[in-house]
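Q: What would this chain look like folded?
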Amino acid sequence: MKQIMMLLAAMLLTACSKDNEVMAEPVQEAGKTLVVYYSYTNKCHEIVTTLTSQLTADVMRIEPADKTQRYEANNYAIGTALLNAINAAPDDAASYPAIDPVSITDLSAYQNIIIVTPLWWSQMAAIMQTYLFNYGAQMAGKHVALIVSSHSSGISGVVADAERLVPNCTWMGNALWINASNHSNRASLIQDWLPTLNFAETQTTMDKMYITIDGQTQAVTLVDNQATKTLVEKLQQTPVTVTLNSSGDFEIWGTLGFSLPTNNEQINAQPGDVILYNGSNICIFYGTNSWSYTRLGKIDGLSENQLRTFLKAGESNITVTLSLSNTTGINGLTPSLPTSLRLEGGIYTISGQRLAQAPTRGIYIENGIKKLAK
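A: My prediction, written as structure tokens:
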């Protein structure tokens, strides 16, 4: 009898272990998501709390630098004045009210971004407009969604503001409107809304290109359009080297030697922008210019002065190589990493960010050794 009981116990333990193994199987995660929001009356904070109970995401709250202002005071005079200043000069950074420094300044790790904002008198709240004016360019090529909180006014004006401030993203679906009459039902509204969104499940397209000039290489975050897809297909075959010349004290430009699909629009090009002109010319900006262009991407993380140096502003016959890999050469982990991280091995980006697994494309560092995934 004792042997039978031991056998039954062993069988039960084996069965439980198998169940546990099944439960522990890894689940394919969606692309990393950021929820960014501003909340004045706390309604948007309540929305975000409900949203993140149904969605795995990092969260960042935007705060005004001046927290003493009451935007509704004097018959909404203060809030109206802030919006009027933006409307009068939407391309001028000085038109936007100051905000506190944000906790996440680099959005490259996020594939999906959900913006949660209040409505101010049929427009997007000025504080959120400031954030998007400063960081909307980093959302180029990403999947973006919008939730708007209002008392009763329709949200078409807020949607228009979002499209102006984040012009080169992929909108995941229709904006969700939560107002005074349905705020208490926000959990079910969000539950019904989330499945309608086109989240980026994985990083399915190459979103980085590299520009090399005189042995120095800088990364370019590409937007998602037919021009960049065609360009990436070219670069997957071989890097492309072009000769560019300075022009107008705001760009270097020249022919690619081939044509790309165009999606021209009037663009106020800014320092760092990489632009397609007339289908076959590449322009890389260290200044500003407004023209009908097709946007390709933006150089990451350089100031205007650094761009002028890197791009050899003012010079002619500048040899520029476009590629899908960083050609500067890396022999080990980023020196600024803590010693403990350098010694323990693991997988890192070239900037020192630890990864859960090796990427499918690009350069990464594994156990202190530089590797290239193609």
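The longest strand covers residues 289-299.
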